[in-house]
Design a protein that fits this description.
Strand order of the largest sheet: 6-7-8-3-9-10
CATH architecture of the largest domain: 3-Layer(aba) Sandwich
Radius of gyration: 19 Å
Helix content: 40-55%
CATH topology of the largest domain: Rossmann fold
Number of strands: 10
CATH class of the largest domain: Alpha Beta
Order of helices and strands: HEEEHEEHEHHHEHEHEEHH
Bound molecules: adenosine-5'-triphosphate, magnesium ion
Mean pLDDT: 91
Structural class: alpha/beta
Low-confidence stretches: 1-17
Strand content: 15-25%
Number of helices: 10
Distance between the termini: 56 Å
């Protein structure tokens, strides 16, 4: 009893004030692609309500890791635990149920071009959750409203801006009531003036207590909102800690070094 109290106390300290029961735990994940080791013993613990931001150079393995987290990319060894229970990825039914709880947002939105915004959100509610059309549409409108698109429901992807498309994609993921949301550079395909509206939706989700892992180069956002920054390089996690720990003025961390170079390259543009 006492031990678990101490464990919780240290965890709390590390993660500010967020609740700390691990929702998802990826343990010792190894992935080989095309004969090359791409992820090497990567472990990540996602406490409830935490936002972890993945950063690192191109080719570090961030996208591979995110896709491994919902088993779009299978791993050679390691395990995924949801609420403390190992996911049996070889059991189709269990894997399907797991995937429903782990939402994914991609850089390029992945919307259905032949469906309007409402139907893009409603289709999974009907097909996966078995909702009636009217019920699915009501829920879809609620999620579109949550991301500020209550007036755009009838529009098709071609009629929406990049930022709006990405917000539809987020609404679609939220409609499934995900336990964890994975975001792979959700703003990097957007014109600079559209980045803010998507980040602001993600900011609202952190406030609502959604558990998220996000790969991004938006360091101001990470600094302000990440509970933890996870720095990856060559398929490994090299550093991990709060923005305050890793980005303190004058601290000699790989993360700080990387950010300084990132900011320099943005200034040069
Ligand atoms: N199907 C594949 N076969 C072989 N190698 C692959 C495959 N997919 C990815 N890789 C390699 O895995 C490494 C990690 O790629 P990944 O896309 O995960 O990096 P990343 O950190 O997301 O990079 P970026 O910042 O550019 O998005 C790269 O070296 C890439 O070439
Ligand atoms: Mg990537």
């Amino acid at each position: 009893m006492k031990r678990s109290y101490i464990f919780l106390a240290t965890q709390r300290k590390r993660h500010h004030n967020i609740m700390t029961s691990p929702v998802l735990f990826a343990r010792n994940i190894n992935v080989t692609l095309g004969g090359n080791p791409i992820l090497k013993n990567v472990s990540l613990n996602m406490p409830k309500g935490s936002l972890k931001v993945l950063i690192g150079p191109s080719g570090a393995g961030k996208s591979t890791f995110l896709q491994t987290l919902n088993y779009l990319i299978p791993y050679d060894s390691g395990k995924l635990e949801l609420h403390g229970k190992v996911v049996d990825v070889d059991n189709k039914k269990e894997l399907y149920a797991y995937r429903q709880q782990v939402g994914m947002i991609f850089q390029d939105f992945n919307l259905f071009d032949h469906l309007n915004a409402i139907d893009n959100v409603a289709i999974a509610l009907r097909k996966v959750k078995g909702m009636k059309k009217s019920e699915a549409n009501i829920r879809a409108m609620a999620e579109l409203t949550r991301v500020g698109l209550e007036e755009k429901g009838d529009l098709y992807p071609a009629e929406l801006s990049g930022g709006q498309k990405q917000r539809v994609a987020i609404a679609r993921a939220l409609a499934m009531d995900p336990t964890v949301l994975l975001l792979d550079e959700p703003t990097s395909a957007l014109d600079p003036e559209l980045v803010g509206e998507v980040l602001s939706v993600i900011r609202d989700l952190t406030k609502a207590g959604l558990t998220m892992v996000m790969a991004t180069h938006q360091m101001d956002f990470a600094r302000a909102l990440a509970h933890e920054i996870v720095f990856m390089q060559d398929g490994e996690i090299i550093e991990q800690g709060s923005p305050a720990e890793l980005l303190r003025e004058g601290s000699k961390t790989r993360t700080g070094d990387f950010c300084a170079r990132l900011e320099m390259s943005i200034d040069e543009e």
